[in-house]
Amino acid sequence: MSEKDQSVDDQRHRIGDEFGREVDPLLQYNDSFVRMQEEGVDPFEMFLDDIIRDGYRKDSTVGEYERAIRHFKEYMSQQGRHPACANDTLVVGFAEYEFQHRENQAGTAKTKLTYVNKAYQYFQNENVFPHTSEYSPIDSAWEKITWPEAEETEYPKVTREEMRTAVANITHVFKLAVILMGLKLGMRQGEIRNVKLKDIHIENSELQNHYPELGTHRRLDGRKNAIFIPAAYNRPGNKSDRPRVLPLDEEMRRVLMQYLLIRPDCGEPWVFVSQTHHERIRDKDGINRHWREQIRPYIKAEEYEKELTSHFGRHWFSTFWKMENSIGKEYAQYMRGDKIGDGRGGDTIDEYLHAYYPDIEDRYRNEIYKLL
Fold first, then answer.
1. b/e for 84-95, b at 16 or more Cβ within 10 A?
2. Distance of CA 199 to the CA centre of its chain
3. N vs C: which end of the chain shows fewer Cβ within 10 Å?
């Protein structure tokens, strides 16, 4: 059989044989985990008890972890495999099962796999497990999953002047900050609620003295006045396929500084905290409510009014870079956190960010629209 006639799977096995690498590295431990299971050992229950059921997480969050892991274990049992010994083919199969049999949308399946991946990260960090950081079946499978596309939502056309008028009337700096994060960075409401102090670098000595952790994420090394937005598999609640670093322009930095200087000192790692309970914002409708109250009254689009939610900010951002600015498809995809189908998907995250961020940084800072 000639090289060009070999399937991807055939070539994968051939390369593994040549370099002494396992195509299915966790299979060798399956029988041992099955034996221990009969003795009452459950690695996923260990993870839940040790990390998730800590008394600090809301019951609803714990329930989401438990449900995701229960569904994954049920599927793996149907495949005759211990759930702690998955491979990327089985993970792809689990995602397809979620789509076809449970009729779940891509976001639900991604959240479940993110929670399962947290358990695998726990296995990798605990020395007693045979799992290593060289292989994660969820990370390996992620790019191979065909995620169903959501139906396109028809949005109103809002001019820059209309949006400037609406933004100019927002007097509450917290509300202004979360709305601008959507408009100027294309961030989803979940990503906004999930952003941590370490994810944001702002070159300001007063802020850095007040928040020593500000901008300390390793993905921001050497990148000033920027924000790191993790992908779904690294931070539960985020939905993007790929992480991204985006510049913070002068307007965004100014509003964030105003907010951070009056933000409650509560010891929380999250940038945006509840104004009453001083903890991470958990209610996604909270940000949508700010859009309804602060933006809708100034936009003449009655027939589309129900679509003027936080996701409109992401749509507006995307339309600017895709249609008005013509920055190029792959750079627009990078700034949205989308999967980029140009061959770079196999790069490490460091290589990926290094390949794209320098190309968009200056152009973003020079051309992003002004709203204040």
1. bbbbbbbbbbbb
2. 13
3. N
CA gap 135, 150 in Å, rounded: 30
Tokens coding 30:
């399956």
343 φ/ψ sector (left φ>0, alpha ψ -120 to 50, else beta): left
Mind listing the pLDDT tens digit for each residue in 297-336? 888 766 665 567 788 899 999 989 988 887 888 888 899 9
Q: How far is CA 187 from CA 29, 99, 237, 317, in A?
A: 41, 25, 12, 9
Domains defined along the chain, listed by start: 3-142 (1.10.150), 160-367 (1.10.443.10)
Q: Do 243 and 230 form a contact (C-beta atoms < 8 A)?
A: yes
**Position 28 confidence tier, pLDDT thresholds 50, 70, 90:** very high
CA angle 128, 57, 65 (to 5 degrees): 60
* CB-count exposure of residue 254 (10 Å: 0-12, 13-18, 19+): middle
